[in-house]
Amino acid sequence: MKIEMTVNGEATAADVEPRLLLAHYLRDVIGLKATNIGCDTTSCGACTVLLDGESVKSCTLLAVQADAQSVVTMEGLSPDPGSLHPVAAAFRAEHGLQCGFCTPGMVMAAVGLLRENPTPTEREVREGLEGNLCRCTGYHNIVRAVLLASGQDPDTARPGAAGDGLVAPGFSVGSA
Hints:
Number of helices: 5
CATH superfamily of the largest domain: [2Fe-2S]-binding domain
Radius of gyration: 16 Å
Structural class: alpha+beta
Order of helices and strands: EEHEEEHHHHEE
CATH class of the largest domain: Mainly Alpha
Number of strands: 7
Mean pLDDT: 91
Strand content: 15-25%
Number of domains: 2
CATH architecture of the largest domain: Orthogonal Bundle
Low-confidence stretches: none
Strand order of the largest sheet: 2-1-5-3-4
């Protein structure tokens, strides 16, 4: 089946099997390797991309479903290959990564979150990223990075509702 879409601002077209996942289209057909595949079940979020501005998990979306739409991957966030998108720069500044496997998906989810909610509370960041898993960082610095990218001081940002326990696996409410 012939599909056409814009990926990182460039028109792409290819004949694909109708069952090809968007993640595999991006990695194997287009050659963009930042979109990682960690689970194929939408559980980890490593494959998160922006589809027409909304963050989606590309491991359970068929490439044909993205036909005639616009996709942005981690590689497409910065127009200049030598510069970092503000969210990626905040992840670096706040040490919001360790092994780096989840980082592209986490950054893409954070970009989507900040488009919907430009100044989230700490709790809203934790809730907004609950579909993305990181097995290395403990999430504290990831949350700080998103708060910094939103223009807030991570040390004084509003915590949101307190005393609710866990928001998601690995995401506890409040700073430790």
